[in-house]
């Protein structure tokens, strides 16, 4: 019966091509608008590391005081004093300090120009904490951290540029005129949002090409390439900067139980209270320990534009569906004589429901195909509405293709319920009498 009803539906749609085209366009444009904006919203609000987001925690300790912060929210980063003290205490199984730096990569070939690349200075634990994927070699060790070793991890793209994609483990890379031994090559890795460096990137960035030990970067006096906030001017010189109240370093930990988190939070409160007793601070402890999704939510990483656009586009879809309801109602009620004859010949109301809902589903499929084409064009044009670093995340992948088609079919069937109900209420006797 499904094939028979589908045949009847397609025949009916061909009889009224203009009306059919209007319905397909209403569904297609409505679905395309909502799916295009949803692709951006999905990209900006997704879990960047779903396998571990619930066990990775960002650390905040208020080093500014209540008069220098808003809504009781500590600064996004930590001072060098606090980071090194917390790292020494080692109250979490894994912990990593990280801050962005900028380096010039100088090729061995004197005929090639240096390349300015983004980089991170970080603790060795970060690679395992964030499941960073290696294709050659491995991360440096905690012992390398302790020894302030001149080692580096580079990405595949940089390895391709410097070594034509060959095995570069054990070779040296020249960074700002200093040689670093390559211990590993990572696949290009840039989770979106870039959760571990939200304050400096806003959450969306192409990532770094080089990673070097945090301790070595401090020795080389490499300044942060990100935000640097100070409540007062630090003393002159690098040592004065390190011992200032300037915040510029992120601290992440990995903990797998509520007990570990509670112990760590208690330690931070005790540490902050100790700083207060020592006279460094004159305010009560104010610390925050948030997992990845809590951190992204607190920093409002999802752009307001994507949320507003999604709401507006869904409203547009609703308007399109209302128009589709009117068109279907007009179309179905014009066939009242046909319905009356079918009912008189023994067709039940459920048969009428099946026939017209299948017909609406055919409209939905056509609208979905149109919506799919328009969604593809829409994702290419998101740069007109959103910043480039966000717009590039909107892609027409298999999940979005399936969702677009499914949304179109479901929307058209839902829109057909009221017109179909009205059609099923047609009284056979009245139609036979009047015709």
From TrEMBL:
Keyword list, A-Z: Cell membrane, Membrane, Transmembrane, Transmembrane helix
Membrane topology note: Multi-pass membrane protein
ABC3 transporter permease C-terminal domain ranges (all copies): 311-428
Domain of life: Bacteria
Record keyword Hydrolase present: no
Pfam families in the cross-refs: FtsX, MacB_PCD
Subcellular location: Cell membrane
CC annotations in GO: plasma membrane
Chain segments annotated as transmembrane: 21-41, 308-332, 353-379, 399-418
Name the UniProt record assigns to this protein: Peptide ABC transporter permease
Upper lineage: Bacteria, Pseudomonadati, Pseudomonadota, Gammaproteobacteria, Lysobacterales
């Amino acid at each position: 019966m499904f094939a028979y009803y589908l045949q009847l539906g397609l025949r009916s749609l061909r009889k009224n091509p203009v009306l059919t085209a209007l319905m397909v366009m209403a569904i297609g444009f409505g679905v395309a608008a909502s799916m295009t904006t949803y692709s951006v919203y999905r990209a900006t609000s997704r879990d960047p590391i779903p396998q571990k987001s619930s066990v990775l925690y960002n650390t905040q300790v208020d080093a500014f005081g209540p008069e220098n912060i808003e809504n009781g929210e500590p600064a996004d980063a930590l001072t060098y004093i606090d980071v090194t003290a917390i790292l020494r205490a080692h109250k979490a199984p894994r912990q990593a300090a990280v801050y962005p730096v900028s380096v010039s990569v100088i090729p061995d070939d004197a005929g090639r120009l240096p390349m300015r690349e983004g980089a991170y200075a970080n603790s060795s634990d970060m690679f395992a904490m964030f499941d960073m994927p290696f294709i050659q070699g491995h991360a440096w060790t905690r012992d390398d951290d302790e020894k302030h070793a001149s080692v580096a991890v580079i990405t595949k793209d940089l390895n391709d540029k410097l070594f034509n994609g060959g095995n570069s483990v054990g070779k040296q890379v020249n960074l700002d005129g200093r040689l670093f031994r390559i211990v590993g090559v990572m696949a290009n890795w840039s989770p979106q949002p870039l959760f571990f460096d939200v304050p400096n990137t806003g959450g969306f960035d192409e990532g770094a090409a080089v990673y070097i030990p945090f301790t070595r970067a401090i020795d080389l006096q490499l300044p942060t390439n990100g935000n640097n906030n100070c409540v007062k001017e630090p003393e002159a010189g690098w040592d004065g900067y390190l011992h200032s109240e300037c915040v510029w370093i992120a601290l992440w930990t990995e903990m797998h139980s509520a007990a570990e988190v509670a112990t760590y939070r208690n330690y931070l409160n005790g540490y902050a209270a100790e700083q207060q007793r020592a006279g460094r601070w004159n305010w009560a402890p104010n610390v925050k320990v948030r997992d990845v999704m809590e951190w992204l939510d607190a920093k409002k990483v999802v752009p307001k534009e994507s949320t507003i656009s999604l709401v507006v586009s869904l409203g547009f879809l609703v308007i399109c569906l209302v128009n589709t309801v009117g068109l279907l109602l007009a179309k179905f009620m014009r066939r009242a004589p046909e319905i009356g004859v079918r009912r008189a010949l023994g067709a039940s109301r459920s048969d009428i429901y099946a026939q017209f809902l299948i017909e609406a589903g055919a409209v939905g499929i056509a609208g979905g195909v149109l919506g799919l084409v328009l969604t593809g064009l829409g994702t290419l044009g998101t740069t007109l509405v959103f910043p480039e670093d966000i717009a590039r995340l909107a892609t027409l992948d298999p999940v979005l293709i399936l969702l677009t088609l499914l949304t179109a079919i479901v929307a058209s069937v839902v829109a057909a319920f009221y017109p179909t109900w009205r059609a099923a209420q047609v009284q056979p006797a009245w139609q036979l009498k009047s015709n």
